[in-house]
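Supplementary material to the annual report.
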Amino acid sequence: MPLLRITSPHAHGPMSTSRVMQHVLLATVPGIIVLTHFFGFGTLVNILWGGIVALACEALALALRGRPLAFYLKDYSALVTSTLLCIALPPYAPWWLIAIGVASSVLLAKHLYGGLGYNPFNPAMVGYVVLLISFPVQMTAWAPPRGLGEVPGLFEALLACFSPASFDAVTMATPLDVLKQNNSLLLEDLWQENPQFGRWGGIGWEWASLAFLAGGLWLLYQRIFTWHAPVAMLVAITAMAGMFYDNGSSASGGSPLFHLLSGATIFGAFFIVTDPVSSAVSTRGKLIYGAMIGALVYIIRVRGNYPDAVAFAVLIANFTAPFIDYYTQPRTYGHARKGDS
Amino acid sequence: MRKIFGFHGGIHPPENKHQSLEHPIRDAGIPAELIIPVSQHVGAPAAPCVEIGQAVLGGDVIAEAIGVVSVPLHAPTSGSIAAIERRPVAHPSGSEALCIVIDTDGEDRWRSLEGVEDYRTADPAQLLERIRECGIAGMGGAGFPSAIKLAPRNPIETLIINGTECEPYITADDILLQERAQRIVEGAQIIAHIVQPQEILIGVEDNKPEGIEAITAAAAGTDLQVVTFPTKYPSGGEKQLIEILTGKQVPSGGLPADLGIVCQNVGTAVAVRDAILDGRPLISRVTTVTGDAVSKPGNFDVLLGTPMAHLLHLAGYDERKNRRLIMGGPMMGFSVPTPLAPVVKTTNCLLAPTESELPTPPPAQACIRCGMCAEACPASLLPQQLFWFAQGKESEKLEAHNLFDCIECGACSWVCPSHIPLVQYYRASKADIQQQRKDQAKSDYSRERFEARQARLEREEAEKDAKRAARKKAAEERAKAAATGEGEEDPIQAAIARAQAKKAAQTNEGSGESELEKLERAVVTTQKRLDTAQQKLSAAEAEGSDLVDALRTGVEKTQSKLDKAKAALAEHQANHSEAPAAAEEPPVDAAQAAIQKAMQAREADAQKSPQEKARDQLGKLEQRLAKAQQRLADGRAAGEEDKIIDALSASVDKLREKISETRAQLAETESA
Amino acid sequence: MADTSYKDLSLNGLWKNNPAIVQLLGLCPLLAVTGTVVNALGLAAATTMVLICSNTAVSLIRNIVSDAVRLPAFVMIIAAAVTCIELLMQAYTYELYQILGIFLPLITTNCVILGRADAFASKNSLAPALYDGFIMGVGFGVVLVLLGALRELVGTGALFANMDLLFGPSAANWRIVLVDDYQAFLLAVLPPGAFIFTGLIIAAKNLIDMQIKKREDARKAKPVKGAKRVRVTGTIS
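Predicted assembly:
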């Protein structure tokens, strides 16, 4: 047998794209468990159904584009996209809502731009925004958390998904929604008036956020991504909320802790903002990118039309990522710093 | 404790060094055949200076250095030259190269070697010459001739002896540190004597505790500092090591010497020591043989030119297990086409891995811009951007993103989760860009030439126009002059000039000397002018230009002027020389003498020149004839009209006539 | 262009050089008002009328207006035509006029109209110019209506809603519900939907063109029966 002729390097590290994706999927598990505990099996059904649709869409797009199916399906990227999207969707969403969202993510946001690695926008967030602007009613219908209402079982969750007409959903405004609608009560009173507020954020939400934080920290420990973007985002959102908190008047945007533990802040910081494809790449770029998302999230939450803003903030920041990268190129070894002679 | 600096990026691949460190250095012996490539270093290949069949002793020069950046080669043992031919070698290009093949006789007879008695008193230049003569080139992997590196332009502050050896698997430097620490220290001191640094550092990664212990012990009591630092690939890269030890970065496109730093590998230090103290040329090295496909991995002291197969055999090579033979480490080594290739000066390691050890890379997936490569890059480049541009062949963007600062360490490819062969893309792009630059330079040159030619043609055209206009004007004036009845003004002017000259001579006898000079100058310049005019005339005649008439009159005029100037000069000289003797006498005789003198001069001139002139003329006529004949032939070939052919052949005939005439003239003048 | 045949003109306007999906002219109204069929139809009709009027007028004066002032002159003509159409719509289809709003007067700036006036009408005699205006308008209109139909269908699950705005009260019940109990898919009706569907229509057109070309190539590539091998090397003595 003739000797193989390959150029260096001959060794390769243990990391692979599939493994990165698997890690991300694994890291969502604690959050999903907490969500399931508080809101029932809705999220789980979302994820399973979304995964099936995602793989089907991916296979379809690959077949149309004449790419090898097995090789690309194995990279788990479609599953990651659909899982992240489905976590963000309200539990007990009808099947078609999920299908449209996942199809938009995989086909529109990913494959129309050239597939994995070429999409300028975060596919999960594109799917989310498509759904949010098309079906605002369904997208803001969250189930009440355990303790405030009946938590449906697995069968009811399946029923809600695949036979929406026969499922009588109980919904409740999310804490962010309540805060947004408020214009007369002091925050303290608001907390007393509305049962969905928990210790820091919303009941269930705060624990889910902490679970996602745990998953995110594990990913950080596994060196799947660096700390820069998530930390910058969280710092920015904390700073914004801190600056405008004014001790809880009726015009207040909510406390920093509330913003950190409500909605998709933590989930977004560790699972959406860190999407490598659509974010800035350089270290300084990641800091700017993350901080920009944090600031935008607060601004859109408090001043915008929609209660949660992570998706919009991420998409807006995605636009700027190439621009940020262009201006934050690191100084190459042996080159003078700009400004130095 | 010395401050240790870090460098950006880097990776921690599995080291796999213990396998080859279980045994001390083994001697690889003398193989039946040594294959010595003439190019084992950076720079011009050495030129073989032996003949096939010639017997050589160990240490004999078998190939000489060509140019400055080159080193000679020596016979590693005694034997006879079997062949000088192309053989497969270990080279990234995978091609064959010219090799000198020695049939060894096993007796290992040596030419007598002589070391330098006391290098401390020796002239550094002499030591450098010795290093060069001994064929020493960098043994860390690059193979740059050491004598050049050790003769930097700038004064050196820091000498760094590189014992880092950051690549996985390789232990050649480690084992040197362990077993030959004393020789390394001696070599370092010799190098220090040459470059006179203020400090000497030996940099070693902290994964070689035994080596560090040995070298620290050997360096005790000398001015060598052993510096250890955390293990990280590629801290053994020259630029990275310099940053670790000094915190400075070698400027892009510059050399360490620009910072006052020189780096030498520990192996090179040992080779320098052997060359200076023992007079032994570089004919062997320590090479690591490792990988799961060899059962007895270890380090070997091996003669240069030993076929790799010989070495592998000693290490218990199982070729069934091996699909890839790598010279160097797994990060920067290159695959060897055949185990028949020889060990060379830069062969620090032979790696024979099994498939499970270093699997064949899977097909590349899409880049997800994860940025791990940018984190790992020791040059702080953006490998993912470079990859993007390399795919699009955007050379300008690649250069703007400093592609050429890439040291091809392979850290980016190692971390890439999508298994993209990034380094391969960069190598290809670099080659492309270099080719483009070459092409660009070539086309620039052609364009310049074209433009210059265009400008010349335009200039000539303009000159021609100007001359034509001048001639027309001159003709008009002449016509006018003829019409008004005025004769040539020259005689009158000449008379006036003569009178003036005479007057001047008479009035300013005190300043006669300067007057003489002036006149002499006039003669010389006029002579010059005449020469150029004649040249032009003959050129014009040769070209058959329509300027011939004008030029001819010009020549005639200048000739007459020259005559006059000469006459004036002679007159003056006569005046002057005779003035003291017969001051009162009228200068009639003098003038006549001058005229005579002038006549003589002219005759001499005429005697000499006609012959030459005729020869010139003849040459030019022949040229013209050739041209005319060519034109005639062309015309015939092109099927021109009869009229034109006739005219051309007539002109050819005329030229022939003229030539024979000139020949006759020439013969006449020669006989006369 | 004396030899312009009406067949070529038709083919150009409707397919090969369609103003909306090949020349990509007039994208602003195309994207803005094609939320429903009736809007699309209204704008298509208005645009076609303006095109016919302007092409006719421009063709008539083409020999009188000097080159230097031709563009202002054309714009004046178009603006006049648009004003007329606007007034007519105000008179007869007031509600549609209100829905189309600013996009009616903006027809003046529609590049299709000025483009045809300058590129075709100003160089051709009356009849071809008139026909060109008509067929370009139809080509533009077809795409408009197609896009409107797609967006209305996907957005609301029904077709031909509010046709009474254009065709009078008798058309009020023309609405066809294709999918019962359809959840409104707002994205299709919103501007992003316009972009996405325009892209899909262009893609479909290119796909059809490619198929046609492939078929033609296949036909051409068929060897002609009875053709002899031609000697191409060596000298012919």
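The two ends of chain C are 48 Å apart (CA to CA).
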